[in-house]
Write the structure tokens for this entry.
Amino acid sequence: MKAGVIVFPGSNRDADCMWALQDILGVNTEYIWHENKNIKKYDLIVIPGGFSYGDYLRCGAIARFAKVMESIQEFSSKKNKFILGICNGFQILLEAGLLPGAMLMNKTLKFICRYVNIVTENNNTPFTGKMKKGQVLRIPIAHNEGNYYCDETILNNLIKNDCVVFRYSDENGNVNDNTNPNGALYNIAGIINKDGNILGMMPHPERAMIKELGSTDGRLIFESVIKYIKNN
Amino acid sequence: MDYNVKITDEIIKEHNLKKDEYELILKILNRPPTIVELGIFSAMWSEHCSYKHSKPILKKLPTKGKSILQGPGENAGIIHATKNLAIAFKIESHNHPSAVEPFQGAATGVGGILRDVFTMGARPIAILDSLRFGKPEAKNTQRLMPSVVKGIAFYGNCVGIPTVGGETIFEDCYETNCLVNVMTIGIVEKKKIRKGIAKGIGNPVIYIGAATGRDGIHGASFASAELTEENQERRSSVQVADPFMEKLLLEATLELNDKGLIVGIQDMGAAGLTSSSVEMANRGKVGIELNIDKVPKRETGMNAYEVMLSESQERMLMITEKGKEKKIEKILKKWGLHAVTIGRVIKKPYIIVKENGKIVAEIPVSPLADSNHKYFPLKKQKGIKPKYLENININYDLVPVPKNIEDVLIRLIGSPNIACKSAIWQQYDHMVRTNTWTLPGSDSAVIKIKGENLLIATSVDGNGRYTYLDPYRGGAIAVAEAARNVSMSGATPVALTNCLNFGNPEDPEIFYQFEKATEGMADAAKILKTPVTGGNVSFYNEGKDGAIYPTPIVGMVGFIKGTRYVKQYFKDPEDIILLLGQTKDELGASEYLKEIHGLIKGPVPEIDLKLESQIQKTVRNGIKAGIIKSAHDISKGGLAIALAECCISAKLHGERNIGAFVEIQSDIRIDSLLFGETQSRVIITTSKKDLNAMKKIAAENKVVLTEIGKTGGDRLIINIDWAAKKCSQKINIKISDLENIWMNGVNKYV
């Protein structure tokens, strides 16, 4: 398999995603410059975190007009092609309309960088196959705008279709206001599209790859999708 | 612009130039200066750029050693890391801008120090910050602190460099003149190191980055005067930050360097285009001719005077080889940037500025930038011992021994300088780049160098109160503590950068503080074998109530070969708690005296640098041998606070907090034992089986080791027996209670 990590001007977790995929998991991975439209050869594309275009106007609002995003639309409609948007990457997926909803500023009005717990709500996706349902992962967040929001209809659809993949929880998987770091609706930390090939999440799995960094739970997400791709 | 304006006394004064300095200008030029020239002299001879007061004293600092690849005098210092890799690092202040406009002031402070490091060809890998404010609840602190923190976060997070450590201290003297010192560490292949030097007659001088605006004109001279009501209004002296531009500039600069297109490069920091061109010319012993018409401008109608003195951010000046302009243009275009040739290197060692084809400034370079030049306005200031130091020590008889030491512990653990600062550092992305092996909130941050068998440990430290009460010891202890913190992770301290924050140096009493503190730092740096690679001096830190405490800040860098490192908190139950070093009857200058008795009094704890060195070596050797499981130095709040911190700081690092049971026989006052700040003491833990091996290591280094207790449970229990006075006291408190107080002391104000 082959993975690609998109680089926009202002992306800054691109190198971390490269490290996680290539150095830690041994996946053949390349950077994809934002002007590159030729992305057919990849099986998995990661849209990394950072501050694409300085997050000017609105997080992800300018990045969605980058040339590579034109191809991403087509890429996402192909069978066995997977997209993982992390943090700013998730925001870009929302702006591009590939996932529903929007991000508001954290309810604390501050940037938050720390480890959080997220509970796996749906383990029946290509990105969560190695987890058990209800399994709690310890993964850091690092964002200013991670307060997920959508209207009631969309939320009901997300829940009904099992598209809410991760929710902020405590270490035992309990979900409530106290376990919600940023005010996200329904404690949403990550959602997937109905076809199950586009996952957007605010926590950074690429930061939880080796025990020295505090957790190895991030591996499960990458390993799940790698395994899925190799088996299909 | 009318360049024939007559230079009046008024104009000279406005430029912050002294009469005798103006006389020097007349001698250098043999004629009156144009207004542009006066502006250039004013910027280059400002304290900020010229170090005219500090240079003679800074010579006392040790700057040589086998680890040093680049000492002071460049944009950043560089030390050897591995055969092929080197580490560039530097600290810088942005105090005045932050006091006036905290968000932009702090943000641009980060931007400036990042550029100083990537100018050298190094990729920044870590930021640390050292902050000083008034009381957390004070009105000015409420105005300054949250915005300073947001400004640092805004910039560092966006560029994608982790802010891995730092310190925040609260004292009344900083209320209107806060301190914002920022340090950056970068990594560079030795063969790719670049310097701020102009070479090759005829080579083009290229301008990269943001366009020049009217912001920050006279920033350097603004930073070289006291903050007054009047100049608080000088908002135009504060620059505006664009971290996205910085990120592009960073990537573009490193790519240009990778492709071998850079001859010399310097960021346009303080005094912008003026200092970058003059300093590069001076280092290369050449001249530079600049054409103002070519400089990209943000506003129309900007004249040569404004362009030369603007401190607009995110700009670089670069010398390349003739004929390579096209290649450079191509790389910059990829990053959405432009390169503009605005001048050339000339043989005549002059800085020549042209506008509309006319020369508006023509000044020999060397008296502008070379402190050895006979017309350079070097000051021969003499210090006088301040009066306040005559009656500075406590009378122990007037300090009652507290009846309830548990109450004291509770009050101290929630006091501003000891309480947890997680609400600050959690606003910084401290994990990006996935190298932060020890997160903020331990004695030093530990950063992995990927692909190498190497860890870096780093810490910034300084104690203004100590330095105020005893300038020499304060300076020495700043170095000792920074080195100790680095050693606590298992790293060998290698070199340091310092930021010297003081009041007005023209006051002989302030100058005395500066001289003595520097001597203290010099002696400590020599004995601990950590030479100084450069840094920054920030004078004129005076608020409405007078000068700040003299505050030298030390940024220390150390290395661990391999992967053995530890953190400050207790790791497992049933481990043995050991105290290294001996506690003396020293209460002076402590947090305890300030918080509990309301006293700012000496004497500052003694520092025996030989012993300090031995203690640090003992800890490093124990960690290297794999038998030390946690190590925490005893500093603010003394032994009791250090023990409490070992119990309650694990949770922030994702591990469980563990209690402790400690028993100590005391032969000194109980408050000295528990809360005094005797130097060169460390709390370590080992498992039972390693106790003898640890004892052996301590004995080899002639360090006193005392078994004081063991870890476990959910309470901190300390039993003290003061035999001579036939009394005993105890602390017995749930660590979760301590943790709550510690977490809420300061965090609620951020």
Q: What stands out?
A: The two ends of chain B are 47 Å apart (CA to CA).
